[in-house]
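Ticket #4471: structure output looks truncated?

Reporter: J.K.
Steps to reproduce: submitted the chain below (210 residues) through the standard prediction queue, then opened the result file.
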Amino acid sequence: MVSYFFGDKQGAHKFCPTCGSSVLVDFKGVDELALNARLIRDIYAKELELNEIDGKQAKPEYKEPKITVESEPQLSASGLTPYNANCHCGQLTYTVYIQSLTDHIVSSCNCSICTRNGYLCVYPERQDIIFHTGYDRLSTYSFGTMTATHKFCPTCGSSVLADFNGKLSLGGVDQLAMNVRMFQDVDLKELKLYHFDGRSNLKPEYVVGK
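Returned output as attached by the reporter:
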């Protein structure tokens, strides 16, 4: 596993270098490990009783990288809202243009990869995503039908997107699945979620290691 440290560097955040799944946090001087329940088989994240922790109040304060868009790119439509985004370590920075999340529906899927890697996705057109730094350094992972390429940061393990390589085309539009968890200044509790049963509806059935 890859270890990632930040802030006071008291916790080693460990993730799989092949698929990007975050596995655990090993804190210095603590006998217990913080295990990611999303990776436990036959556990349904939606059914868990959660202990909400306001991690934003933790010290030292996490500072997101400042992103400046010098000029608006040629977009697929007018009236789109820009959302700056980054992986946790900040090596990857980008801007996504979509309808305002006040009205936009975000997909919460329970398939094997979305559950394990914490995807909450919107599906902008490829031309509406502007990568500023770090895109060429992203690690890639594919499985099953090998249709989608899942991309994550090799340094911090942040799961960023799924690229369907032109094979997901709604109305002839080339779209990417972008993880809203990477967006800056977005309150996840205020998102309008659509729960998709990918565990039952996506084929072939997930088999570990294939």
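Triage note (M.O.): checked the attachment and the full token line is present. The chain has two helices and 16 strands.
Status: closed, working as intended.
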